[in-house]
């Protein structure tokens, strides 16, 4: 029997994750069955269960991928000189997610923000997913902390600035923008940049 290539295996896994993400964003995690996922990806149960044991493992894998993408974006930005300021970096992080995961729902709405809310909601009742998110957010906090340190090194932040506190605030800012997208519709990238820039200059107006 011919061996299945790694490229084929990776593509099939991607197909399953993308289809599951559509189902979760469209109908919610608990209203989605594995049969819904099978229908969405047009695969047999055996083909899907070869990769994932069920919905819980699917949503954990989706969350891990998102967190890894955000972390990678921040770590790359921290290596730039000069480092991109938050008004540049926040829109970039969301633009990167849109580029890598551009799938939309039937309405034309970008899938990711609604999916993110489903992940958060499920994590409140699923200890396994909570652990995945906790580990991922710890890594993202560390990556944002690296950004804050790069701002210090560039003379953009005072030396006594609390880098972890800044990391938490920046995560909250990105989450807040994404939640607004999920609840009220898309936000123009320029609005993200302008709003973040305005926060950066509070107290410095003359």
From TrEMBL:
Keywords: DNA-binding, Repressor, Transcription, Transcription regulation. Residues 33-52 bind DNA. It comes from Streptomyces labedae. The keyword Transcription applies. The keyword Transcription regulation applies. It comes from the Bacteria. InterPro entries: BetI_C, DNA-bd_HTH_TetR-type_CS, Homeodomain-like_sf, HTH-type_TetR-like_transc_reg, HTH_TetR, Tet_transcr_reg_TetR-rel_C_sf. PROSITE patterns: HTH_TETR_1, HTH_TETR_2. Residues 10-70 form the HTH tetR-type domain. This is TetR/AcrR family transcriptional regulator.
């Amino acid at each position: 029997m011919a061996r299945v290539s790694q490229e084929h295996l990776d593509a099939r896994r991607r197909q399953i994750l993308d289809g599951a993400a559509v189902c979760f964003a469209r109908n919610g995690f608990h209203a989605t069955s594995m049969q819904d996922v099978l229908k969405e990806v047009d695969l047999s149960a055996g083909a899907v269960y070869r990769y994932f044991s069920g919905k819980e493992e699917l949503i954990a894998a989706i969350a891990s991928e998102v967190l890894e993408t955000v972390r990678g974006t921040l770590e790359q930005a921290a290596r730039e000189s000069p480092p991109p300021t938050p008004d540049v970096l926040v829109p970039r992080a969301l633009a990167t997610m849109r580029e890598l995961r551009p799938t939309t729902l039937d309405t034309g709405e970008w899938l990711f923000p609604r999916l993110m809310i489903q992940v958060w909601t499920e994590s409140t009742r699923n200890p396994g997913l909570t652990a995945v998110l906790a580990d991922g957010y710890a890594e993202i906090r560390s990556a944002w902390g690296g950004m804050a340190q790069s701002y210090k090194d560039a003379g953009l932040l005072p030396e006594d600035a609390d880098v972890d506190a800044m990391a938490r605030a920046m995560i909250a800012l990105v989450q807040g923008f994404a939640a607004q997208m999920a609840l009220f519709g898309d936000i123009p990238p320029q609005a993200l940049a302008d709003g973040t820039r305005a926060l950066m200059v509070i107290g410095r107006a003359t």
